[in-house]
């Protein structure tokens, strides 16, 4: 488990106090910077039997087990629905979609009892990663409180969150917060180049400076969808809501919202005289949309988009939602 270069300083600072680590950490920061990988790299380093400059050596038995995903002193707990996302093995369609929980359930916490209580296999640390921390069901959180308050020796619990304000206060107050920020652009660009990403500057801008999200968005199918979506939002006569919405299914909905939100952010920024952040390659189209837009309309649109993002995980009709948002957009841009 090799750490991303932008995480190394924070990891080294933490691991310099090996043996005096906090019992529980809440690692938080923006999406797409690799918070989960940070937590895993931290775990691998803590479990490593011969750390090199505090970081995991990648060679010892412990590192080997960790990379194979079967280290006996490591657990990672996620909601059932996220387990599915990660595997994505076969196209399961809508199969059992409703049954998959978006929460970390109390049963999952109870199942950790032995892991927490018994002595560790390798006579070192045990590390538990839970993510996203805001998905802990209140009952599950209650079942975890005692462990968070009085963990057995050599236990490290790492909570990961993109939205720390939504983490239950009982959990938040028992963790040391560790904020990870966006890496310096130079470092992020160097990494994107090393990953073979063409036009890394555009990719990084579209991702708001988050390198892992930038790599994801640079995928050809993603750039094609971006071009199509932003082309629709640039249309001088307004978006063709019905025709466009017919082509957005549930799988694309979240990304549609992302593109629309970043676009509207840029239009509102220009309206307020601030620079374009996400789509500098389309600055002139943004400029002309900003001229035509009404401030009130943009406010309403931003509110609707935030609401739509909250609903995205729940069953809804993607086509109708997209249509509604585009019509709201057309009203905002052509008052
Ligand atoms: Zn090692």
Summarize the structure.
By secondary structure, the protein is α/β, with parallel strands linked by helices.
Keywords:
single chain; 335 residues; alpha/beta; 5-stranded parallel β-sheet; 17 helices; binds zinc ion
Structural commentary:
The protein has 17 helices and five strands. With 335 residues, it is an alpha/beta fold. It has a five-stranded parallel β-sheet, with helices on one face. The protein is elongated. The termini are far apart. The relative contact order is 0.11. The structure holds zinc ion.
Radius of gyration: 22 Å
Ligand inventory reads:
zinc ion
H/E element sequence: HEHHEHHHEHEHEHHHHHHHHH
In percent, how much strand structure appears in the residues? 5-15%
- Order of strands, main sheet, comes to 2-3-4-1-5
Number of helices: 17
Spans of at least 5 consecutive residues whose pLDDT stays below 50 are 87-97
3D shape: elongated
Average pLDDT rating:
91
Helix fraction, binned, reads 40-55%
- Can you summarize the main beta sheet? 5 strands, parallel
Cα-to-Cα separation, first versus last residue: 53 Å
Oligomer: single chain
**Total beta strands:** 5
Structural class: alpha/beta
Q: Mind sketching the topology for me?
A:
Elements: H1 8-15, E1 24-28, H2 35-47, H3 61-68, E2 74-77, H4 80-87, H5 106-110, H6 113-117, E3 126-130, H7 138-149, E4 155-161, H8 169-172, E5 176-179, H9 185-194, H10 200-206, H11 211-217, H12 220-234, H13 241-245, H14 250-271, H15 283-292, H16 295-311, H17 318-333
Helix pairs in contact: 10-11, 12-14, 14-15, 14-16, 16-17
The structure holds zinc ion (ZN).
């Amino acid at each position: 488990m090799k750490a991303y270069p932008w995480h190394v300083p924070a990891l080294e600072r933490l691991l310099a106090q090996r043996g005096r680590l906090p019992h529980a950490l809440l690692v938080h920061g923006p999406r797409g910077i690799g918070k989960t990988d940070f937590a895993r790299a931290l775990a691998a380093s803590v479990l490593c039997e011969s750390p090199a400059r505090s970081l995991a050596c990648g060679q010892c038995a412990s590192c080997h087990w960790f990379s194979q995903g079967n280290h006996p002193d490591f657990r990672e707990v996620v909601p059932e629905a996220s387990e599915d996302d990660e595997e994505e093995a076969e196209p399961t369609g809508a199969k059992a979609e409703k049954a998959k929980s978006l929460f970390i359930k109390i049963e999952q916490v109870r199942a950790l009892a032995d892991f927490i209580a018994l002595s560790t296999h390798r006579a070192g640390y045990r590390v538990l990663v839970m993510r996203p921390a805001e998905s802990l069901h209140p009952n599950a959180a209650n079942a975890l409180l005692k462990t968070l308050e009085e963990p057995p020796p050599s236990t490290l619990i790492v909570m990961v969150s993109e939205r720390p304000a939504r983490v239950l206060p009982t959990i938040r107050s028992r963790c040391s917060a560790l904020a990870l920020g966006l890496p310096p652009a130079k470092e992020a660009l160097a990494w994107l180049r090393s990953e073979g990403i063409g036009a890394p500057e555009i990719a990084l801008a579209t991702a708001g400076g988050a390198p892992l999200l930038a790599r994801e968005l640079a995928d050809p199918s993603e750039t094609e969808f971006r071009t199509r979506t932003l082309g629709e939002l640039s249309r001088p006569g307004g978006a063709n809501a019905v025709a466009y919405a017919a082509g957005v299914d549930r799988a694309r909905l979240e990304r549609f919202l992302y593109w629309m939100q970043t676009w509207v952010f840029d239009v509102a920024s220009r309206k307020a005289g601030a620079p374009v952040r996400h789509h500098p390659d389309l600055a002139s189209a943004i400029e002309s949309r900003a001229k035509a837009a009404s401030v009130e309309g943009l406010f309403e649109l931003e509110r609707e988009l935030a609401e739509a993002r909250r609903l995205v995980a729940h069953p809804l009709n993607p086509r109708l939602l997209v249509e509604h948002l585009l019509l709201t957009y057309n009203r905002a841009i052509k008052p």
